[in-house]
Every structure is written in structure tokens, then in C-alpha cells.
Automatic annotation (TrEMBL):
It comes from Dekkera bruxellensis. Its EC number is 2.3.2.27. Residues 1-25, 217-235 have a biased composition (Basic and acidic residues). InterPro entries: E3_ubiquit_lig_Bre1, Znf_RING, Znf_RING/FYVE/PHD, Znf_RING_CS. This is E3 ubiquitin protein ligase. It catalyses: S-ubiquitinyl-[E2 ubiquitin-conjugating enzyme]-L-cysteine + [acceptor protein]-L-lysine = [E2 ubiquitin-conjugating enzyme]-L-cysteine + N(6)-ubiquitinyl-[acceptor protein]-L-lysine. GO terms for cellular component: HULC complex; nucleus.
């Protein structure tokens, strides 16, 4: 195994901070043979880091190129997007203001109206050919748009619905086309991503092939088998083996130099062959371009001939005759449609008159019915009020009669009691007179009586006198009670009469309040109907004004349509004559057109095949040029040993990767066995001294026994 020295990835200990130069003396080297050492492992890790940085650098270069292209395209597209957006806004404003366009055309109809759309700004001399071509194309499109919009904006819009349907169909077609383009764009992006991945894989393969540490590992596997055989056969010949190793090293260095020389010669040969192929492809491309220019001239001649057909060409054309017959049929159909339209208009007018008459009759019937219903409702309301009043009156009388009936019954009972008492009193008086009359007894009997009996008789007389006095008092009291009772009955009857009158007055009051509420509700309804009628009157007046304005507009349109119809008839006659002449020309030139068309299709197919060949050759040419460019770069790199800015950036990135992430001043010289992260010994010992025994990157526990010294 030859001693391969690593000069492209030096150590970071003796480098300056800003500008680093390649050292003449090797700082690191791989071992010659035998088992792999710690230095070999470090060398392998650094080469792996370099390979990763190399792939990232290539990706960065590709992305920068794409970003640069996209920035240029974005500036151009944004500029033209603003121009086109302004065009659309001006088109919309022009379609909104038809009078403005007609005034401009009437003032100067012969000149080209440049005020419809904004002009395209002029480009500088520094702009690329692509942007100049885009500006020229925009100018041509602007002139075409003005030529299309100037006559359209001066005419009234006809067949709006058909045009809207056509626009909707075209919009759906554009949406489908857009979806197809999006799918193709997605597929192309996926292809580009696949190509970028393949390019990254190719770069990785090239870096792996150029890796010295991987060659050392593969040779180490082979050397192990050889060492086993040598240890079995040659254990004591150490001096001879050292001399043989020296010879092997010299031979391997010579072989390596010869291999580099052969590789350089192969690259030169490949470069010369690619140059020849490129020259041949350019010649073929020039030939194809000349053929394309000849075919384009022929196509332009055919187009000019088709655009300027003679009368003899059009005379024998059957298509022209069919066009004439079709034109006559269309005119007949147009006349029939006009007749039908006039007939339909008359029928529509009759139907409208009948409709208005029926509508008026229905309105009159509805109004009369509503008035009759209103009168009937008022009559019913008056009947209801009268019935309610009679009901209230009867209720009050019934209540009075019920109250008086109870009182009359009480009075009758009292009278019967009084009569029975009077009868009993009369009977007692009669019996007392009979029993106590002094005239009935004789004096002799009295004399014969005892003195006790005489005193008893005297007492009886006194009692009889008192009884008479009591009877007189009772009769007087009874008379006064009867008078008071009659007065009470009269006052009670008067109170009942007043309560009846009060209830009647209350009913009348409530009836008046209900009538008042009904009148207020009717008043509100009448006010609302009056306001609605006023609004309806205003609306009818405004509608009348609008109808008058529309009638004036229709009259003006009718007069204009009369003028347009006269112009149309004259134009139709002229077009008929022109169509006859064109049909005559078309009939004779159709055959020539068909033959030229077949020739054109054949030439277009041949041109398409040639375009495909040219595109394939162009792609091959571009790939060959890129390969040649890369090979030239490799040759220049092999010839010169000077460092580039990319190498300096890589060295700076490697320097940052080898510095400790905790202090950023010392190199990584200690690794942790528990997790594999690397730091400087000073930071690790400081953390151990402060009892912070967790990895700063992954928080895994470590101790003094997990430390392993390394060298980067």
C-alpha cells in the first residue's frame, strides 16, 4: 500500500484566521499497512465530512443558478403582467363608457386610436434578446387589440346570451388546458427532482472513488489475508521484509504517476472526439436551419397566394356555389324569421291588451266585493253591539228581580208573622176583658170575697192597665217599625235601581271604549293604507317617467334600427355580389388549395421530424458541452495546485465543525463513550468539577471512565 498524503484537507491548528494557504509539508497521513489506527479513523471521518460538504456545495450552486434565472424571469414577467393588467382595466373602462369611444372615432375615424391602451415602454440596449422579443410581441398584440376593440366599442352589443355561452365554453376549455399544464408541470418538476437526486448520487460515487481512506480500508482487508500468510511462512525475516516494503512503495508511486498520465491522455482523446462530434452536430443543425427557412418561404408564398385569389380561381369552385345557395337559404330564413317575429309581436300586443282588460275587470270585481264585505262587516258589528247592550240590560233586570224576589218573600213572611201576632194579641185582649171585667161580677160577690182576693183583684186591674199601656206602646213601636221597614224597602229598591243604572252606565262606557278602540284601529289601518297609496302613487309616477324615457329611447332606437336596416340591405346586396364573385374564385382554387394542403402537411410532418432530430441533437450538444466544460475544469484543476474560494469556505466550515461548541475556542479532543459527542477537555473537566455530569447535546449521563481522547 503506498503512503498517500492528504493535502486537500489539512489540520486546523496552524491555519490563519482569514486567508489559508496550502501547506508544503503534510500534516496528516495514512498508515502504510496493517491494522487501522486512530489517525486512519479520524482521516476517514474528515473525508466523509468533506464528501458531505461537496454534495451540499453542488446543490447550492444549482440552486443559485435556478434562483438567478427565476429572478430574471420574475422581473420580466412582473413588468409585462402590470402592462397586461392595465390593458384589461382599460378595456373594461372602455366597454363601460361607449359614448367616449364613439366621440373619439367621430372626431378622427381615419387615424389609429392610440389612446385605447397604454403603450409598451421602450427597452434599453442592455436588455437581452428574449426580453426584446417579448416587447416586440407585446407591441404587435397591442396593435391587434386596438384594431379589434376600435370597431367593437362603436357598435351595440348583440347576442349577449350566445356570447356568454361561448365565453363559458372557452373558460371551461381553458380550465381543462390549465389543469393539463399543471399536471405536465408537476411531472416535469418530479423529473427534475429525480435528475438532481441522480446527480447527487453521481457526485457521491465520484467522491467515494477518489477517497483515499476507503481505498486504505479495502486494501486493509486484502492486507490482512497477506499478513496471515506472511506470519505463517516468514516470522524471522524482518530486515528483508523492510527492504521489500521500500521497493513496493517506490513501485506503487510509479504506478500511480503512470495511471494519472494515462487518465490525462484519455481525457484529451475524449475531449478531441467530443469536439469533432460537436462540429458535426453544428453542421447538421445549420443544414436543418437552412431547410426550415426554405420551407417557411414556401409556406409564406402559399399563404399569400391563398389570401389573394383571382376570379378564375374562384369561378369553378363548388364550395363557392354551395356558399351562394346557403346565403340565399339564410336570407329566406331571415325574411321568414322577420315575418314570424312581426306576427308574434302583434299577438303579444293583443295578449297584453286582453291581459290588461281582464286585470282591470278583476280589480273592479275585487274592489266591489271588498266594499260589500266591509258593509256587511259593519252591519254585523252594529248587530253585535246591539245584542250585547240588550244582553247587559236583561242581565241587570234579572239581577234586580232576583234581589227583589228574596226581599218580597221576607216581607211576606214578616207580614204573616205580624198578622198572626195581631190575631193572638186580639184573642188575649178579648179573653182578658172577659176574665177581668169588673162589671161582670156583682158587688155582693165582691163583698163576699176575702181581703186577699180583693187585693188580688186590685193587682189584676193594675196589671191590666199596665198591659194596655204596653199594648199601646207595642202598637206604636210596631207602627214605627212598619214605617221604618217600608222606608228601608223603598230605599233598598231605590239603591237597586241606582245599581242597575250604574251597571247600565258601565256597560255603555265599556261599549263606548270598545267602539273607540275599533275606531282607533280603523284609523291606523286607514293611515297605513293612505301612506301605502301615497307610496304607490310616487312609484307609479316614477314608473310613468321611466316608461316615458324608455319610450323615447325605443323611438330613437327604432329610427336608428330603420337606418341600420337600410344600410344592412344595401350591404347585403353588395355582399351578395361579392359572395358570388368569391364563390367563383373559390371553386377554382379549392382543388389547388387541397393539393397545397397535402403538400404542406407532408412538409410539416417532415419539418416536425427534423425538429425532433434537431432538438435531440441540441440536447446531445448541450450535454457534450457540459461534459467538455467539466473535463476542462478537471484538467485545469489537476494542472494547477492553487486553492479556490470554495476550498477556503470548505476549510472554514470544517474549522467550525472541529471547534468545541461550548467554548468555540478550543479544538475537540475528547469524546464521550456513552453518546459519542465530542468536546474539548477543558470544558469536560470543568463540567466534571462542577458535578454537571450530563452531555450538553443529549443530556446523557457520563463519568471519568467514559472519556476518550481523540485528535482532529
Amino acid at each position: 500500500m503506498p503512503s498517500s498524503k492528504r493535502g486537500d484537507i489539512p489540520s486546523f491548528e496552524d491555519r490563519p484566521s482569514k486567508r489559508m494557504k496550502r501547506s508544503d509539508t503534510p500534516l496528516e497521513e495514512l498508515t502504510d499497512g496493517g491494522l487501522l489506527s486512530q489517525d486512519d479513523v479520524v482521516y476517514y471521518q474528515k473525508e466523509a465530512i468533506y464528501r458531505l460538504l461537496n454534495t451540499i456545495r453542488h446543490r447550492n450552486q444549482r440552486l443559485r443558478k435556478e434562483v438567478k434565472k427565476m429572478n430574471g424571469k420574475y422581473t420580466i414577467l412582473s413588468k409585462y403582467y402590470h402592462i397586461i393588467n392595465n390593458w384589461w382595466s382599460e378595456i373594461i373602462d372602455n366597454f363601460k363608457n361607449f359614448d367616449l369611444i364613439t366621440k373619439i372615432e367621430n372626431e378622427d375615424g381615419s387615424e389609429f386610436n392610440q389612446h385605447l391602451l397604454i403603450s409598451v415602454p421602450e427597452m434599453n440596449d442592455r436588455t437581452s434578446g428574449e426580453t426584446k422579443a417579448l416587447t416586440e410581441e407585446l407591441k404587435e398584440k397591442r396593435e391587434k387589440l386596438i384594431a379589434l376593440l376600435q370597431p367593437i366599442l362603436s357598435l351595440p352589443v348583440t347576442n349577449r346570451d350566445d356570447k356568454l355561452l361561448e365565453l363559458e365554453d372557452s373558460f371551461t376549455n381553458l380550465n381543462a388546458f390549465k389543469s393539463n399544464l399543471e399536471g405536465e408541470n408537476k411531472m416535469l418538476k418530479e423529473k427534475i427532482e429525480d435528475l438532481n437526486q441522480e446527480l447527487d448520487k453521481y457526485i457521491k460515487k465520484v467522491d467515494v472513488k477518489k477517497s483515499k481512506s476507503l481505498d486504505r480500508i479495502s486494501d486493509n482487508l486484502h492486507d490482512r489475508e497477506e499478513l496471515k500468510e506472511e506470519e505463517e511462512g516468514k516470522k524471522g525475516n524482518t530486515n528483508s521484509s523492510s527492504s521489500v516494503d521500500g521497493n513496493i512503495e517506490g513501485e506503487s508511486s510509479l504506478k500511480e504517476a503512470q495511471a494519472v498520465k494515462y487518465e490525462l491522455e484519455d481525457l484529451k482523446v475524449a475531449f478531441s472526439s467530443l469536439k469533432n462530434e460537436h462540429k458535426n452536430v453544428k453542421e447538421q443543425l445549420q443544414k436543418e436551419l437552412t431547410n426550415i427557412s426554405v420551407l417557411q418561404k414556401e409556406i409564406s408564398g402559399l399563404r399569400s397566394r391563398l389570401s389573394n385569389l383571382s376570379e378564375d380561381d374562384l369561378k369553378g369552385s363548388p364550395a363557392y356555389q354551395s356558399v351562394i345557395t346557403r346565403n340565399s337559404e339564410l336570407t329566406a330564413q331571415l325574411n321568414q324569421i322577420k315575418f314570424n317575429s312581426s306576427k308574434i309581436e302583434s299577438q303579444l300586443y293583443d295578449m297584453e291588451s286582453n291581459l290588461t282588460a281582464h286585470k282591470k275587470q278583476l280589480e273592479d270585481d275585487a274592489k266591489s266585493q271588498i266594499a260589500a264585505n266591509a258593509a256587511y262587516i259593519t252591519k254585523l258589528e252594529s248587530d253585535i253591539n246591539r245584542i250585547r247592550a240588550d244582553r247587559d240590560k236583561l242581565r241587570s233586570e234579572n239581577n234586580i228581580l232576583k234581589a227583589e224576589k228574596g226581599k218580597t218573600e221576607l216581607c211576606d213572611e214578616y207580614r204573616q208573622l205580624n198578622e198572626s201576632l195581631q190575631k193572638r194579641l186580639d184573642e188575649l185582649i178579648v179573653t182578658s176583658k172577659i176574665e177581668m171585667d169588673p162589671e161582670d161580677g156583682s158587688v155582693d160577690d165582691i163583698k163576699e170575697e176575702t181581703p186577699d182576693k180583693i187585693s188580688l183583684i186590685r193587682k189584676n186591674k193594675l196589671l191590666i192597665k199596665e198591659l194596655k199601656q204596653m199594648e199601646e206602646a207595642f202598637t206604636s213601636i210596631r207602627k214605627s217599625f212598619a214605617t221604618k221597614l217600608s222606608r228601608y224597602v223603598e230605599s233598598d229598591a231605590y239603591i237597586n235601581k241606582l245599581s242597575v243604572e250604574k251597571s247600565r252606565a258601565d256597560e255603555k262606557y265599556f261599549q263606548a271604549m270598545r267602539a273607540k278602540d275599533a275606531l282607533t284601529a280603523q284609523n291606523k289601518i286607514l293611515k297605513g293604507s293612505i301612506s301605502k297609496q301615497a307610496d304607490l302613487i310616487d312609484v307609479l309616477r316614477s314608473n310613468e317617467k321611466r316608461l316615458i324615457e324608455k319610450l323615447d329611447v325605443e323611438k330613437s332606437l327604432y329610427s336608428k334600427l330603420k337606418e341600420v336596416e337600410s344600410l344592412y340591405t344595401n350591404d347585403l346586396m353588395y355582399q351578395k355580389n361579392a359572395s358570388r364573385e368569391a364563390e367563383i374564385k373559390l371553386s377554382s382554387t379549392k382543388k389547388e388549395f387541397d393539393s397545397l394542403k397535402t403538400e404542406l402537411f407532408g412538409k410539416q410532418e417532415a419539418l416536425g421530424e427534423k425538429d425532433k432530430v434537431i432538438s435531440s441533437l441540441n440536447s446531445k450538444n448541450e450535454s457534450n458541452e457540459s461534459k467538455v466544460h467539466e473535463l476542462e475544469k478537471l484538467i485545469a484543476k489537476y494542472r494547477s495546485n492553487s486553492r479556490s474560494a470554495e476550498d477556503d469556505a470548505i476549510d472554514q466550515a470544517l474549522l467550525t465543525m472541529t471547534k468545541c461548541q461550548l467554548c468555540n475556542k478550543n479544538f475537540k479532543n475528547v469524546t464521550l463513550k456513552s453518546c459519542g459527542h465530542c468536546f474539548c477537555s477543558e470544558c469536560i473537566h470543568n463540567r466534571l468539577a462542577s458535578r454537571m455530569r450530563k452531555c450538553p447535546s443529549c443530556n446523557k449521563q457520563f463519568s471519568n471512565y467514559d472519556l476518550l481522547s481523540i485528535h482532529l
